[in-house]
C-alpha cells in the first residue's frame, strides 16, 4: 500500500523561468554539489526540446540514519534517483520522479506538476513510498517521507537562489 507524499513548493518566478531551470543540466550539477549530500553526482542526463531525463546518485551517511534503518541495512544508504520533466505547455509542465536504495526492498515514485501564472509558480509533488519489510515497513516509510519533504525544501531554497541569479556552488 505505501505511504503518500503530498508536498508543494512555491517560487517567486514565472513557470517559464522555473521550467528553464529544471531542464538545465548545469543547474543539476550545481544543485547536487550544493544540497545533494556526500558523493552526490549526476549519473546520466539527456535533454531534448525543453525536456530532461536524469539519473542522480546521492548517499546518506550511516551516522545520520535512525537505528531502525541501520538495524536492517548497515552502512551508508546509496540512493539512485530518477527525475524527468516534459515540455512547458502554456504555464504548466509535468514531471516524474522515482528513487530506490541499494539493498532495500522498496521504492519511491510520483509526479511533479509545475504550474502558475505571471511571476509566481508552484511545484506539486504527489507520490508514494513503499518499503516491503514486515512490521517495520510503515515506520521506515514515514521516515522516508519526512526526509523527502526536508530534501524538497532544501532543493526549493537552492532553486530560489538560482532563479534570483546566485549560481555559485
Automatic annotation (TrEMBL):
**A Pfam family for this UniProt protein?**
DUF2505
Q: Which InterPro entries match?
A: DUF2505
Q: What is this protein called?
A: Protein of uncharacterized function (DUF2505)
Amino acid at each position: 500500500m505505501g505511504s503518500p507524499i503530498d508536498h508543494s513548493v512555491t517560487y517567486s518566478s514565472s513557470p517559464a523561468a522555473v521550467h528553464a531551470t529544471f531542464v538545465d543540466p548545469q543547474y543539476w550539477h550545481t544543485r547536487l554539489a550544493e544540497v545533494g549530500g556526500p558523493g552526490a553526482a549526476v549519473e546520466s542526463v539527456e535533454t531534448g526540446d525543453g525536456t530532461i531525463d536524469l539519473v542522480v546518485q546521492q548517499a546518506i551517511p550511516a551516522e545520520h540514519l535512525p537505528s531502525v534503518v541501520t538495524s536492517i541495512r548497515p552502512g551508508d544508504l546509496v540512493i539512485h534517483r530518477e527525475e524527468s520533466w516534459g515540455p512547458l505547455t502554456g504555464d504548466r509542465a509535468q514531471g516524474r520522479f522515482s528513487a530506490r536504495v541499494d539493498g532495500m526492498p522498496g521504492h519511491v515514485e510520483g509526479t511533479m506538476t509545475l504550474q502558475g501564472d505571471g511571476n509566481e509558480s508552484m511545484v506539486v509533488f504527489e507520490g508514494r513510498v513503499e518499503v516491503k519489510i514486515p512490521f517495520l515497513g510503515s515506520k521506515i516509510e514515514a521516515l522516508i517521507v519526512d526526509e523527502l519533504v526536508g530534501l524538497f525544501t532544501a532543493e526549493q531554497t537552492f532553486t530560489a537562489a538560482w532563479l534570483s541569479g546566485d549560481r555559485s556552488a
